[in-house]
Amino acid sequence: MSAPERSDLTTTSAADLARALKARELSSVEVTRAYLDRIAAEDGRLGSYLHVDADVALARAEEIDAAGSAGDGLAGIPVALKDVVVTEGVPTTSGSKILEGWRPPYDATVAARLKAAGTVLLGKTNMDEFAMGSSTENSAYGVTRNPWDPERIPGGSSGGSSAAVAGGLAPWAIGTDTGGSIRQPAALTGLVGHKPTYGSVSRYGLIAFSSSLDQAGPMARTVLDAALLHEAIAGHDPLDSTSIDSPVPVLAECARRGADGDLSGLKVGVVRELGGEGHRDGYEQGVLDRFAEAVALLEGMGAEVREVSCPAFDLALPAYYLIAPSEASSNLARFDGVRYGLRVGDDGDRDLDEVMALTREQGFGPEVKRRIILGTYALSSGYYEAYYGQAQKVRTLISRDFSAGFADVDVLVSPTTPTVAFPLGSRVDDPVAMYAADLCTLPASLAGVPAISVPCGLSDGLPVGFQIMAPALADDRCYQVAAALEAASGGPLIDRLTGAAA
Ligand code: GLN
């Protein structure tokens, strides 16, 4: 490969940047500056970042260049972090007013590992408040726009990360996914996004939403980049009690192998309940068409395709919207006006309860309050069994559907989202319509299994995502199949937005 032109730095894959850095055709300062220039020029329009410190980023890049380590693994490559990831000394808000001004005293494990790998932090990205939402319109700090069409949402809740990467304002980024918040925004912006097996990436230092579901993962322009970023953050962490003690998975190798396009022997199950016959309400025809074409491509590469029925998936949405708010109502109790950020009404005349109530009234937005109320109700004595208990039983049924499916096939596939990116403002006052954006992503979250979204073409000029789900700890299968599909469909879809393919 020849050195990328300077002007092309923000369309070059991270894997190619690493090669050029290693060959000393480029410096980390040059790459970092290219991204900072683009942020300065474009982010007024996109709104993807909540915090950028150009001087700190450049100083860090200089340090990596001076140490001569640029290009060793991820060293010298810039990265953006969703603002739910706690970063030492760097403002962290989780998209909420209640955390305005908070500078954490420590790094999340994900942030610490990326720091140790020598990456350069560009900034913290916008998100739905406490990761509750599917459009990034629930942020206390304004909306983020989709680089494919600025009048549309970039997905959520990791919409700042998706817009930054798709818009060329970061080579890649970290998102978090509780019910779909990596996969759905990746799908709607033409990116690759992976939700790892629950417990395989540390949750230490991620601001908790729903602890039994939350996972951090990579958002990138290519499957290989996503795999490289994933490897850098994965692995056991004694600071997270639910962390799985298993080796870091080999993913980049799988992505490279997958790109060869040989899927012979692979058994693929198309989930009937996610857009199949009798389950197409709310699915756009363009999404179903691109999905069917992608399945045909997998077949063309030797995969054996069959339909698999997972009946309990139809209940994922109501079960999720009981479990996630229940856990959130408990997790968000810590924001009391005493320990972090905002404090309202502390004028000497009010007692602690009043200050707490005023702080929470002013600090939380409407969607967060809705979930706290719903979750508190679902957990209250007398209702607990009827709501939370039933939802947990549904969760078990969903896991059993996955187990039965994976007894017959290697991966399960579906569209990532029922529709392409919707217009800004079109669902924000209709929570149920907003929740429907997660229809296809929720089952894998509830079962804790890995799932990737990889682009499978455009519908009316907007990206469509293809979801690949695998058994727990078989994240490598997601990458292998995604890489095969990416190669068979003419390379990374994002190149059609940036013109890099031309
Ligand atoms: N959109 C879903 C919700 O609002 C999922 C969010 C997420 O994955 N963080 O809860």
From TrEMBL:
Gene3D superfamilies linked: Amidase signature (AS) domain
Top-rank EC class of the record's enzyme: ligase
Reaction(s) catalysed by this chain's protein: L-glutamyl-tRNA(Gln) + L-glutamine + ATP + H2O = L-glutaminyl-tRNA(Gln) + L-glutamate + ADP + phosphate + H(+)
Segments forming domain Amidase: 30-478
Listed InterPro entries: Amidase, Amidase_CS, Amidase_dom, AS_sf, GatA
Keywords: ATP-binding, Ligase, Nucleotide-binding, Protein biosynthesis
Stated role: Allows the formation of correctly charged Gln-tRNA(Gln) through the transamidation of misacylated Glu-tRNA(Gln) in organisms which lack glutaminyl-tRNA synthetase. The reaction takes place in the presence of glutamine and ATP through an activated gamma-phospho-Glu-tRNA(Gln).
Family statement drawn from the similarity comment of this UniProt entry: Belongs to the amidase family. GatA subfamily.
NCBIfam families, sorted: gatA (TIGR00132)
Protein name, per record: Glutamyl-tRNA(Gln) amidotransferase subunit A
Organism: Blastococcus jejuensis
Lineage: Bacteria, Bacillati, Actinomycetota, Actinomycetes, Geodermatophilales
